[in-house]
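Bench notes, afternoon.
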Amino acid sequence: MQTKNQEKPIELRIDRDFGDIINTYFDFLKQNLKKFTNVFLSYNGIFLIGLLIVSYLLVSGVIGVITNDENSVMETVVSGSEAYIMYFAVGGLLFFLIFLMVAVLNYSLSTSYMIKYEELNGQNFNKTEVWEEVKNNLGSIIVFILLLIPLFIGLMIAAMVLTFIPLIGMLVQYVLQYFVMAWVGVSFFVMIKEKRGVTDALGEGWNLVSKNFWKSVGSNFILGFLIGLLFIVLIMIPGILIGIYTFHVVQNDVDLTASIVPTIIYTLGTCLLLIIGVYSQCLSQFVNGLLYFSLHEKTYNLNSRGKIDQIGLKDQ
């Protein structure tokens, strides 16, 4: 017996307006969240362990520095706060490297998942096929990410400059930010789906997004805001529990170094925050997937032409 998902797959290659993109996004999530989460967990195991280790180093470093700051300067030196600072520094470096790899991996996984869904009409594809799509484009993905580094450095500089312009600067900053998110996300889909070179994909992505500027910016803003709310909801319960524990620690002057419990609690909390952040990024890339298929169909009309050709063949 076919499942409901198999009976009614969502047709992605349709020219949709702003409201339809938002509605279709939630329909897609409802249909694919469980399956994609399985893909996410399957290929992130070692990195999730890495994030747990990094979280431990960061938390140990912070707790060590805080507890040593309660002592005098000479006692701090003797007690070895330099070791805690080293924990924090090493943890910070590993965090940057691991989080970058995790972000690239999951940006690629969510893109490949959506491409496979569209190619096979939502049916009969598994996590291995999604991973193969990533592996087959690994070289282009690495080059793409490297080219984005100077782009985002420039975006950060522009954002800093715009902060000095009251109100208007903030609005321009947000518009620029969501335009770049749409451009990069759509270009990534172009590169994977159409097997184009990196610069060619960025050019095509620019062409699609710039011609549909407000639809692209609006879709990323609204859905990004809603995903952000979902992120807050997911971390609310553990956040409240950790907040209550922190209040207990402060009010009762608990010695954080006297027990391993504070380190475990804060480590798990930090790790959970990082994992949810990465997962939210995956969900954000699905927005650009819908945007890509919609803008591509609006520009080239391939799906509609194919349907007309099929009708013509049936009539013959």
